[in-house]
């Protein structure tokens, strides 16, 4: 079976900061860093997060089997 990908709702900055703090091995908390750095972190994780090209929103990718 082929896995299809679907995106969830846009994540808020609080969602992103909480996720960054859980996933990142950095010594600084997300809320003390520039927002661009947090955005770039999620932008690099293309298999897990989708960045909408015109809206600039970040969405968690959910895999569903079809």
Structural notes for this entry:
This protein has 66 residues and is α+β, with helices and mostly antiparallel strands. It has helices spanning 13-23, 35-44; strands at residues 3-10, 49-51, 58-65. The chain is built from 2 helices and 3 strands. The radius of gyration is 13 Å and the shape is globular. The termini are close together.
SSE topology sketch:
Elements: E1 3-10, H1 13-23, H2 35-44, E2 49-51, E3 58-65
Antiparallel strand pairs: 1-3, 2-3
Which short descriptors sum up this protein?
three-stranded antiparallel sheet, about 70 residues, single chain, alpha+beta, about 30% helix
**Distance linking N and C termini:** 6 Å
* Main sheet record: 3 strands, antiparallel
Helix proportion:
25-40%
Q: Count the domains.
A: 1
Give the overall pLDDT as a whole number. Answer: 89
Number of separate strands = 3
What fraction of the residues are assigned to beta strands by DSSP? 25-35%
Main-sheet strand order equals 1-3-2
Question: What is the radius of gyration computed over CA atoms, rounded to a whole number of angstroms?
Answer: 13 Å
Form type: globular
What structural class is derived from the secondary structure elements? Answer: alpha+beta
Q: Helical stretch count?
A: 2
Low-confidence stretches: none
Q: Please state the oligomeric state of the protein chains shown.
A: single chain
Element-by-element helix/strand order: EHHEE
Quick structural gist:
Helices cover 32% and strands 29% of the residues. It has 66 residues and is of the alpha+beta class.
